[in-house]
Amino acid sequence: MAQVEVKVKLDLPPGVELLGYERSGDGHGFEVKFPLPDSCRCEQCGHEEPSTYEYKNTVYVVRDLDLWGQPSFLIFQPCFHRCSRCGHRQEHFAPFKRKKVMYTYRFEEYVLRMLIGSNEEEVAVRLGISAETVELIVENQLKDDKRIDPTRVIKHVGMDEISLKKRHKLYVTVMTDLTDPESPKVLALARGRDTAAALQCLGKLTPEQRAAVETHRVDMGKVYGAVCNEQLPNSRLVVDRFHVAKQFNEVVDDLRKKNHAEVQIPIVQSRAETVPLADVGVSPRPEGPEARGTRVAGSAVRRVACVEGRV
């Protein structure tokens, strides 16, 4: 069997080192390690001392960004420090994920971007996770209330709404840094899709950052465009192809539904006239053992024809 060597350039979280790789079904597993602090402060008694780590006998499997359209996971052995004063055992958590979840921070941002133009049920099916997990990710991102680095250069921003529930009015406004199209970055989230939500997102930018923005990409509604025109003095509006195609499809779908209803009216009002049995193409009655079954089928055809004649 011929063997092919494939080289892949991985974009690992900062400070993470790759130790090994394992393919499991349709997924990719990467064994990693990350730097540990030299000292630890006990969360129970507050005592600080040099770290002495112990490792658990299990491993953590944490969902990360997809690779080649397939799920990938970061695998590592969790460790903890035991306080010499009170004996409290304190786990050292990986820097690329939050406590009590099994997915990375950047996977959370990926889910947020997937929600643009979709909803939590559809995103959950596409990523193979539960809708409750998608909802929890959005809630955690809203609670974080992240601060934007004031030195960050932002030239292009996007503002979109995401729907948490299908056919429910549960919306969140997402502001994204589109300066690097290959790696968009979620900057801020706010509940709702109104002027207040847009102002809350843009308010996290400094006046210098707002003045440096060159373009803002929003939907074709009245809210986001008006707020961006007011808050971003040197920026111009850009409507991307996604929003144009979305609105075009909505108009076409409305016309289809309208025309379909108009066509159905004359069909319902004019029922089919009586069709002679000769035109139906009923074959002559056979002889032999199969004659009984054929007579039953023929009588059923005649009953249908009589019913249509009375309608």
Account of the protein in words:
The protein has 311 residues and is an alpha+beta fold. It folds into 2 domains: 9-101, no CATH class; 104-263, Nucleotidyltransferase, domain 5 (2-Layer Sandwich). 35% of the residues lie in helices and 24% in strands. It has 9 helices and 14 strands. The strands form 4 sheets. A 5-stranded mixed β-sheet has the order 12-11-10-13-14, sandwiched between helices. Helix 6 links the parallel strand 13 (215-217) and strand 14. Helix 2 packs across helix 3 and helix 4 runs parallel beside helix 6. The N and C termini lie far apart (71 Å).
CATH architecture of the largest domain: 2-Layer Sandwich
Largest sheet: 5 strands, mixed
Mean pLDDT: 82
- Distance N to C terminus: 71 Å
Question: Class of the largest domain, according to the CATH hierarchy?
Answer: Alpha Beta
Give Rg in angstroms: 31 Å
Globally, the shape reads globular
- Unreliable parts: 277-282, 300-311
Q: What's the number of domains?
A: 2
Give a count of the beta strands, DSSP E runs of length 2 or more. 14
- Could you please say which CATH topology of the largest domain applies here? Nucleotidyltransferase, domain 5
Order of secondary-structure elements = EEEEEEEEEHHHEEEHHEHEHHH
Strand content: 15-25%
How do the helices and strands line up, and which of them pair or pack?
Layout: E1 17-24, E2 27-33, E3 39-41, E4 48-50, E5 53-55, E6 60-67, E7 70-76, E8 79-82, E9 89-92, H1 105-115, H2 120-127, H3 131-144, E10 156-163, E11 171-177, E12 185-191, H4 195-202, H5 207-212, E13 215-217, H6 223-231, E14 236-238, H7 241-269, H8 277-280, H9 291-310
Parallel strand pairs: 2-7, 10-13, 13-14
Antiparallel strand pairs: 1-2, 3-4, 5-8, 6-7, 8-9, 10-11, 11-12
